[in-house]
Amino acid sequence: MDVNKQTPIEVKDYLLNNAIAFKAFKHKPVFTCEEAKQEKIGAKGIEVKNLFLKDKKSRRFYLIVAPEELAIDLKSLGLLLDEKLKFANEANLVEILGLTPGAVSPFGLLNDHQNQVKLILHKSVAESDYVQFHPNLNTQTLELTQGEFAKCLSLFGNEFEYLEF
C-alpha cells in the first residue's frame, strides 16, 4: 500500500486531531455484513454496506453507503445518478482509496487525495443517531454519533449526497 495512505491508527489519530469523538471496537476480520452480524461487534448505529462503484468508462467513482439489508439495483441507482454503473475493480480500490476488499468505508476517502470519489449515502444513514465504519481495516469498527460523522464529511473534501434509492 502507498505510504501516503491512512492506516487504522492514522485514521484514529486524524479523528482525534480534528476533535472528532468515536468509540473503537476490535474484532475478528469481517469481510461481509453477515460476518459482522455473527461477530456481534457491539457498536451502536445503522449497519451498512459500502460499495465501490464506477461509471462505465472509469471516469467517475462512487462510494455507496446503504443499510446492509437494502438490495441495491445498480441500473436504478445509475439512472438516479445519470451514469451506467458497475463495480470498481480491486486495483481501483487499492489505488484510489488505499483499501482492500472487506475494509471499504467512508474513511477510505482520506486516501482519495484527488477527490475522485463521490460519496452517496442512503438517506437512512442520516436518520440514524449513530454510524459505524471500519477505520480502513476490517478488524476494527468505529462508532460515531451522527454529529461527529457530519464533521468527517466536511473534512474529507469529497462531494457527497444523501439520496433515497
From TrEMBL:
Keywords: Aminoacyl-tRNA synthetase, Ligase. Residues 27-151 form the YbaK/aminoacyl-tRNA synthetase-associated domain. One of its GO terms (molecular function) is aminoacyl-tRNA deacylase activity. It holds the Pfam family tRNA_edit. Belongs to the PRORSD1 family. This is Prolyl-tRNA synthetase associated domain-containing protein.
